[in-house]
Amino acid sequence: MRAKSQILEVWGEFACFTRPELKVERFSYPVITPSAARAVYEAIYWKPQFRWQVTKIELLAEPHFIALRRNEVKGKAPADRTIRQWIAGKAEPQPLWADGEEEATGRTQRQTMALKDIRYRLHAEIRPWPEQEPELPAFEAQFRRRAARGQCIYQPYLGCREFPAYFRLIEDEGHEPPALQHDLDLGLMLYDVFDLSRPGGSEDAPAISIFHGQVRAGVMDVPDYAQDAVLKGVGEQSPC
Asked: CATH assignment of 6-69+112-221?
């Protein structure tokens, strides 16, 4: 049984899809990455029985950059195991202090080259894991029902959680405006940070993958994760 494409129009005031080779000072790709698009769908509807495969991204607004300075906390959240112990009351929670005295804590200002006033039309399909395909129509119906009502598990965001994403379900693409007639060669672009070939867990190490992103007449076709066009196993190497 073939999955049906689920289409969303997504927009927001700001967005930042950080290029991994410029991770000290945030610098956004001019177009949303497949992993950020996947996260929008997962925020609306997700089940452990399947994953989302983004197939196409359409530009509905020309990308414009804006320079921002943001306060970031130097420290990192601990491993999930530690956080679960905090939730269960087995250990005392240790906050991340915004004004800590140690070198590894406290806040630091970072320059961010973000996008403003973005708008995309996203296409994605539900890909059930093995032996889950009979539930595909039910999964798709639940997603459309939630998206049509504006329901979500948590607020979708555009690269950074402080940049909320707004969305609407597109039932009939024939009545929608065409994509922006814009061509871009994005070079090697981040595809995802997880291994999408199998169900993952919270303890899985990052598995970086990249692909050659090209926008033709406002449309960026996204290859399937299993295709050779997606370069996997990049690890800590820079995609440039």
From this structure: 3.30.70.2660
